[in-house]
């Protein structure tokens, strides 16, 4: 007997496909007894009326199990609670500068959707702890199921260029902390490769600190993979991350990683990265230099990365979701049978 699961996805804005790519790959790894249906919202998540329509539309497309896959959390409000799973990737939007926006996001992206769901999945223990500061629910209702590595990322060993290493920076949003990284790199003979279009003040800092750099934006997944292959190391010293996928991507390509000692990054990196204080420029600099100058240490990070990436294999993550779908359906059937007997 097959179990019908409907995956509810946002209509993404241009170049916004990370969640969609993730769950497309996940669905391919689910067992054959899961009958899959994908419901994409008619409208982008923008404005009151379009969002209300998206909720109404979702309410008419429910399956035996509903899975709201992220970013359109409010869709859960229109679904039947006993068969709805909500995935929350992070709570970073709660740092919005507007108090009114934070209030609306708290209620319609967190509190009400969590109340309307039978189970919530998050991608890290850090995100779970963050979520519990905004919602009042049994922690057991929130299950950690991490992201997984795309099959596009495969091991590609490379001789480390110690004389002038290429350092990869993924992302340019304020939490990515690029300007402190730039300051830390001043005087180090290296080349900084940036994925994303840097902010004007970041470009100004790069020029002022005389850092060799290059940036590209709107890359395909294949182009991103090439950037990892071409680099010698990853610097990912964010101040906030719901997960920190670049860490695992670098581990898979077999590149050493310097990352932050806070938020979700130590959880994701394990012992396979050089952890630094992202608010301390000298700490970032010392971490980068340690990886560049100490071959034995650098090699140990790569070896530990090979082990760490096994935790995030797609098949392992798909199995966790499969078991969750079975659990939700079994609990519903058990409760339904109990009511019939009464």
UniProtKB/TrEMBL annotation:
Q: Extract the Gene3D superfamilies matched here.
A: Glycogen Phosphorylase B (3.40.50.2000)
Q: Which CDD domains match?
A: GT4_MtfB-like
Q: Which domain of life is it from?
A: Bacteria
Q: Which GO terms describe its molecular function?
A: glycosyltransferase activity
The reply to whether Transferase figures as a keyword in the UniProt entry is yes
Pfam family membership, one: Glyco_transf_4
Any idea what this protein is called? Answer: Glycosyltransferase family 1 protein
Instruction: Identify the species of origin.
Output: Rapidithrix thailandica
Q: What is the lineage of its organism?
A: Bacteria, Pseudomonadati, Bacteroidota, Cytophagia, Cytophagales
């Amino acid at each position: 007997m097959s179990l019908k699961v409907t995956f509810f996805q946002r209509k993404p804005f241009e170049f916004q496909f990370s969640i969609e790519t993730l769950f497309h790959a996940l669905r391919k790894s689910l067992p054959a007894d899961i009958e899959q249906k994908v419901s994409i919202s008619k409208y982008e998540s923008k404005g009151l009326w379009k969002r209300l329509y998206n909720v109404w539309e979702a309410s008419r497309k429910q399956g035996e199990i509903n899975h709201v896959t992220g970013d359109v959390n409010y869709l859960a409000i229109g679904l039947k609670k006993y068969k709805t799973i909500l995935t929350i990737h992070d709570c970073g939007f709660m740092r919005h500068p507007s108090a009114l926006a934070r209030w609306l996001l708290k209620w319609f992206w967190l509190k009400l959707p969590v109340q309307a769901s039978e189970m919530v999945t998050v991608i890290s223990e850090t995100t779970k702890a963050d979520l519990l500061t905004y919602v009042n629910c049994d922690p057991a209702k929130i299950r950690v199921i991490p992201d997984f590595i795309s099959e596009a990322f495969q091991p590609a060993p490379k001789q480390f260029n110690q004389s002038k290493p290429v350092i990869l920076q993924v992302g340019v949003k304020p939490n990515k902390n690029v300007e402190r990284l730039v300051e830390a790199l001043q005087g180090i003979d290296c080349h900084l490769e940036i994925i994303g279009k840097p902010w004007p003040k970041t470009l100004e800092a790069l020029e002022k600190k005389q850092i060799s750099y290059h940036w590209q934006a709107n890359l395909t997944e294949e182009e991103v993979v090439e950037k990892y292959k071409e680099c010698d190391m990853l610097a990912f010293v964010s101040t906030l991350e719901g997960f920190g996928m670049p860490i695992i991507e670098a581990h898979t390509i077999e590149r050493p990683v310097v990352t932050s000692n806070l938020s979700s990054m130590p959880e994701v990196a394990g012992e396979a990265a050089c952890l630094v204080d992202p608010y301390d420029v000298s700490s970032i600099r010392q971490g980068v230099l340690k990886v560049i100058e100490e071959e034995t240490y650098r090699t140990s990070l790569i070896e530990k990365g090979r082990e760490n990436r096994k935790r995030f294999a797609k098949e392992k993550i798909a199995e966790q979701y499969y078991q969750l779908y079975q659990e939700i359906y079994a609990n519903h059937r058990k409760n339904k049978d109990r009511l019939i007997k009464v």
